[in-house]
Design a protein that fits this description.
The complex is a heterodimer of chains A (117) and B (107). With 117 residues, chain A is an all-beta fold. Chain A is globular, with a radius of gyration of 13 Å. The termini of chain A are far apart. With 107 residues, chain B is mainly β. The chains are: A mainly beta (117), B mainly beta (107). At the A-B interface, strand 5, strand 9 and strand 10 of A face strand 5 and strand 10 of B.
Chain lengths: 117, 107
């Protein structure tokens, strides 16, 4: 059974870089045609797609994040990561990783990230 | 980006009620529309994919319909465990986008 687990910094200072990792177990991130995805949810608000990475290494990002985001994969560890630079309070959210098989059918439990000095 | 608009934003209903939530896309998305249920403190859970296909394990009281720009999620007989927030999401193209959510509360 495929499982995803987020980990990373829960508190980040403004202007610094947010880094999260999603460890995948019960399946490989090297299998097509899935996309490995980051989604976030600010407190009390809706869901925002951040971006994804495919088995090929191709990445796609939400234009709203204006070049601040990078998603990468470590295939030897079967995990993928999110880097978000120059964070502000608007980046405070629960961050989820998920598998995109045209639908988001498997999700991590989510990790809360707070941007504060 | 494709904008997804849900209505209503919230509703109050009783156990046993029939509940309908609508989702409209800003352009045609064929049948590439999915529905999720989210409970407080939990990740969203996939209910319906490609507009009308029921995800494995989801009760049959949930159903979806629509194509093009207009879609509907129906709960035929609301159960206590169905009180949650529901989101539609398009998978027609990137960036993937979600509706703003519909909170279903107890009347």
């Amino acid at each position: 059974q495929l499982q995803l687990q987020e980990s990373g910094s829960g508190l980040v200072k403004p202007s610094q870089t947010l880094t999260l990792t999603c460890a995948v177990s019960g399946g490989s991130i090297n299998i097509s045609p899935f996309a490995w995805t980051w989604i976030r949810q600010p407190p009390g608000k809706g869901l925002e797609w951040i971006g994804n990475i495919y088995q090929s290494g191709s990445t796609f990002y939400n234009p709203s994040l204006r070049g601040r985001v990078t998603i990468s994969a470590d295939r030897s560890k079967n995990q993928f990561s999110l880097n978000l630079t120059s964070v502000t309070s608007a980046d405070t959210a629960v961050y989820y990783c998920a598998r995109d098989s045209v639908v988001f059918d498997v999700w991590g439990q989510g990790t809360k990230v707070t941007v504060s000095s | 980006d494709i904008q997804m608009t849900q209505s209503p934003s919230s509703l109050s209903a009783s156990v046993g009620d029939r509940v309908t939530i609508t989702c409209r896309a800003s352009q045609s998305i064929s049948i590439y529309l999915n529905w999720y249920q989210q409970k407080p403190g939990k990740a969203p859970k996939l209910l319906i994919y490609t507009a009308s296909s029921l995800q494995t394990g989801v009760p049959s009281r949930f159903s979806g319909s629509g194509s093009g720009t207009d879609f509907t999620l129906t709960i035929s007989s609301l159960q206590p465990e169905d009180f949650a927030t529901y989101y539609c999401q398009q998978s027609y193209n990137t960036p993937r986008t979600f509706g703003q959510g519909t909170k279903v509360e107890i009347k």
